[in-house]
Amino acid sequence: MQASEQPVLRDIVLVGGGHSHVGVLKRFGMRPVPGVRLTLICTDVHTPYSGMLPGYIAGHYSYDEVHIDLGRLAAFAGARLYRDEVIGLDRAARRVLCRHRPAVPYDIASINIGSTPQVARVSGAAEHAVPVKPIHQFNERWLALLERVRRHAGITTIAVVGGGAGGVELTLAMQYRLRGELRSLGRNPDELRFHLFTASAQVLPTHNEGVRRRFEQVLTARGVTLHCQADVQSVTAGHLTTRNGDTLAADEIMWVTQAGGAPWLASTGLALDQDGFIQVNDRLQSVTDPLIFAAGDTATMVDRPLAKAGVFAVRQGRPLAANLRLSVLGLPLRAYRPQSRWLSLISTGDKHAVASRGALGFAGDWVWRWKDWIDQRFMRRFSEFPAMPAAGAGASPNAAADSARALPLSAEESLQAISAIAMRCGGCGAKVGATVLSRALGALAPVERDDVLIGLHAPDDAAVVRVPPGKAMVHTVDFFRAFIDDPYLFGKVAANHALGDIFAMGGEAQSATAIATVPPGLESKVEDLLLQMMTGAVEVLNEAGCALVGGHTGEGRELALGFAINGLIDEDLATVMRKGGMRPGDVLLLTKPIGTGTLFAAHARLAAKGRWIDAALRSMVVSNRQGAAILRAHGATACTDLTGFGLLGHLVEMTRPSGVDAQLQMSALPLLAGAQETVAAGIVSSLQPANVRLRRAVRNPEGFVGHPRYPLLFDPQTAGGLLASVPADRAQACVDALKAAGYPDTAVIGCILEQGDALEPITLID
Predict the structure, then answer these.
(1) What is the distance between the alpha carbons of residues 670 and 743, in angstroms, rounded to a whole number?
(2) Residue 570 clears pLDDT 50, i.e. is over it
(3) Arch. (CATH architecture) of 578-766
């Protein structure tokens, strides 16, 4: 996460990662507006390109080839990526409401979430049919169907409801792929039965007659049973029934029709059309609220309704980006003039395609190759990024002030902006203002404990905490700057990281004081930043039974957060777990995969896939609390949590006081997805070189320096897992218990040996 020299003055929030919004992100990345911050809220870290999805289903493309990596794209654009589900808008307060996190404030919001199959309109469809959207859910069902067909001997009947381009392409793509799978298994492809249902008199009702006839011929030739004027009225388990009473038994029912707007749009107060889509003017601006924009399938232009076609969503990216830019600058918006005719390229599943434009139509393998060239070119726009200057690089000393003058600010906001840009005071003058702080912290609800006598919301100079009889205090502190642009998630990771030391020693977390640094800016922006970050942190602390009792917040160039944690342990130390205590014959366990250092170094360089970062963050927010309890219950002789010194550094810290050696098995190390790839590319954390100095603790490095996992021995971890030694006869039961408790990557990574004559305590084996 790069710190910007520009204070944040305005927020543009993008809801959804549709085709229009990826265009907005790319254009803002190429030409950012100083003082304007973008936030993308999306449920998935990948967004599919609809034009290539049939090719993916047919097996012509891989998953990565048809999905845009929103993590990398957002990083290029300097945008925050919030992974969450939007459930509404509070237009009065200008906030986007999310399911799992605090509401996200906006100055301008844009919605590009596509359409939603209206399965609820047909009895039983929601329960028994597979809607084509959202795509990630459909993909899971498709992969399951693929495996089921491979394993199932005999007839499989698949029904597709929807005779538009989407339904036709999906039918032919699935059929092509599944028949090919059966052939490869030596089975009869005719075991498959496909039925296509449409309420219209013909398939592809929005296309010309020649194209419709051509596809009817293809469907017939492929053995697809076509049901025209067959409006599906009800769906039950394994059956569907049409309006005229016809019934079909089917093993899978795919739903590609009756699309409408997301249900939550109905509660926004925005003007919607009869299908629940947002009504917009020719500037792609809601006719109800000028601060809300919409594009793609989500939007309906009141003066010129457009077909729900991907071509419009793609082409609306440019005018939407322009009008978001103009709107935030307070300048007149520009009208979007869609083309009256457009080219539609519809594939037949077998690297053959039909082109349709108005009354024209032509087909051939060359059309598919042409389509493939267009699609691949489009995808490269969002996977190949030009080198851009670092944030703040080359900016004039007056750039921040110029941005403040360029944006339409109120008198109060202008004063705050000038203050944020000016030279800041030191000492207590660098504290965040009391009003901002009280508003941000007032919404927090730290867990209540009987032993916290004076806590967070008391107006006193310090907290007062009681130490229960028979208990001793365990103290630890951690602090680091933000490495991701999501303050809520960063707060979770920071709190989890700080708690790790307490749990590793077998303690119970009691109380925490926070130390936070936030970049200066408008009071509303600073307040929200604090609220988001501390909400995430308090959720983690509360789950651990740890009360937030106070802290200190100051201004600085970068967002940073840390905690001083107090924990409790039996004063006789009977239950304490320490680094020393390893015994020869013990088994060495690791509860989480490693690789956070290299992955986030790669993320900063746009060299990490979004799903790698997403998986790493999911691992980092998993608490070590239960893991430590399980280790203690299985007689762990020593324990520590993996942090900045990396696996090798922490293992050395354990062997020395224990008076033992250790054998580490390289092939057994659990790795985060992508970690081996990024270290192979030479991408490592800035702390790696210092950790590498510990290679002198390895007895046989010459045989492993070239090993692909060797650099990961030195990779610094954030919120890493627990490294522990366990008696050999209890190790398997311990591993099973840890995996059942939510540590699926737990692995036996080595064993403890008698101390030998060599100075180096660590031996590596493959």
Answers:
(1) 11
(2) yes
(3) Alpha-Beta Complex (3.90)
